[in-house]
Amino acid sequence: MKKKSIKDTSQRKIIFFDLDGTLHKQDIFGSFIFYLIFHLPLNVLLLLLLLPIIGIGLVIKGSTSRWPISLLLWSITFGRTELSLLNLEKKFVGWFRLRMKIFPIVQQKLINYISSNDVDVWVITGSPQSLVEQIYYDYSFFKQINLIASQMERGWGGRILKVRCIGYEKVNQLEMKIGTPLKLYGGYSDNKKDYPLLSFCQKRWLVDVHGKIKKLK
Hints:
There is one protein chain. By secondary structure, this protein is α/β, with parallel strands linked by helices. It has a single domain (7-216), classed as 3-Layer(aba) Sandwich (Rossmann fold), CATH 3.40.50.1000. It has eight helices and seven strands, in the order E-H-H-H-H-H-E-H-E-E-H-E-H-E-E. A seven-stranded mixed beta sheet has the order 4-3-2-1-5-6-7, sandwiched between helices. Helix 1 (28-39) crosses helix 4. The model has no long low-confidence stretch (mean pLDDT 96). This is Phosphatidylglycerophosphatase C.
């Protein structure tokens, strides 16, 4: 994927795209969680024990907080070797790609932007980077965008989320890449959780469940 330095962005238009529900219909990370639960049923017992803590964490810290979802991920991967989890990842990617519904109108918008010499496109998603890269590896536009995503890593005998890139965290992550103050030309998303980042966009578009685009005032 192309990379731009902070200096490169000063005279360029910056466009933000969400991924799940925007470039395609399904949620990658949510689907991955259910896939793991189905294929690792013994871990469901640990998940059930931790569900009250996870639920309380989401209520207190908010639905965009990192550690409750990290704990959920850990509970369904604990005790599994990294090799076995990587093999499950590969199987999940194949399963997901067969079922993924692309939103062609939105993807064409993205392709049109990256064909312009004065535009930088940032795809910023709450799904883990390792999954996104495997699912989109053969899409021609993917090597021409800048990707910011959630980060999974090995920890405490399972998988944890080092970064959960949703809500205000998308703002923080983009600021670390291109600096402050943020000034984006436009943004595309299907989710109100992206409003913090969309508030920095001059132009904003909402993508509905059918992949249609509506301009927000």
